[in-house]
Amino acid sequence: MDYIKDLFKFGDLYNHEETDPLFIRAVKKNINFHRMHCKEYSKILNAKNYNPKDIRKISDLYKIPPIPTLYLKKHTMKSIADKKMLIKATSSGTKGKKSHIGFDGKALYYGFHMVMATAGYHKLLSPKPTNYIMLGYEPNKSNHTVVSKTALGATFFAPALKREYALKYIKGEYRLDIKGLKKALI
């Protein structure tokens, strides 16, 4: 049974009584996949004596060993080959080191489905064109951060007339564009 598919197909987003068991099974399936395909992750789980049988309900999720972001900044962990990662992104690297993440087709499909279901449920989708003021980074080819990719994605909930970014990429660096923001607001 594909618990991940069942979870994402479920119509009522906030019906935890029925979705929590599906969520738990999907989490355990994902952990098992990564354990089988990533030697480093398997070592972490084994070192912390992780046992999937210990995860029966939402309140058991704390038993899944966390991976600190600092660890991910210093170690590469991959469960799929680079060539299968359709989108690659990084953390912002504010302290000098970046962690890396990749998404395959299945992850992108389910992620898109989740975003659209949530946006539809909360009535965030609109056919009416709008202006966006983005309090973040203007996209460019050298910026691979997750935050810039998700911010850009949020501007597709309604057709964009214009996207005004607080942080503009000018001459190889990001600069705060107060004038552009003021103009967009007036």
From TrEMBL:
Annotated ranges, domain Acyl-protein synthetase LuxE: 15-147
Question: Pfam families under this entry?
Answer: LuxE (PF04443)
Transmembrane ranges?
none
User: Could you provide one GO biological process annotation from this protein's UniProt record?
Assistant: bioluminescence
Q: Which InterPro entries match?
A: ANL_N_sf, LuxE
GO MF annotation terms: long-chain fatty acid--protein ligase activity
Instruction: State the name under which the record lists this protein.
Output: Acyl-protein synthetase LuxE domain-containing protein
Organism name: Herbinix luporum
Which taxonomic lineage is given here?
Answer: Bacteria, Bacillati, Bacillota, Clostridia, Lachnospirales
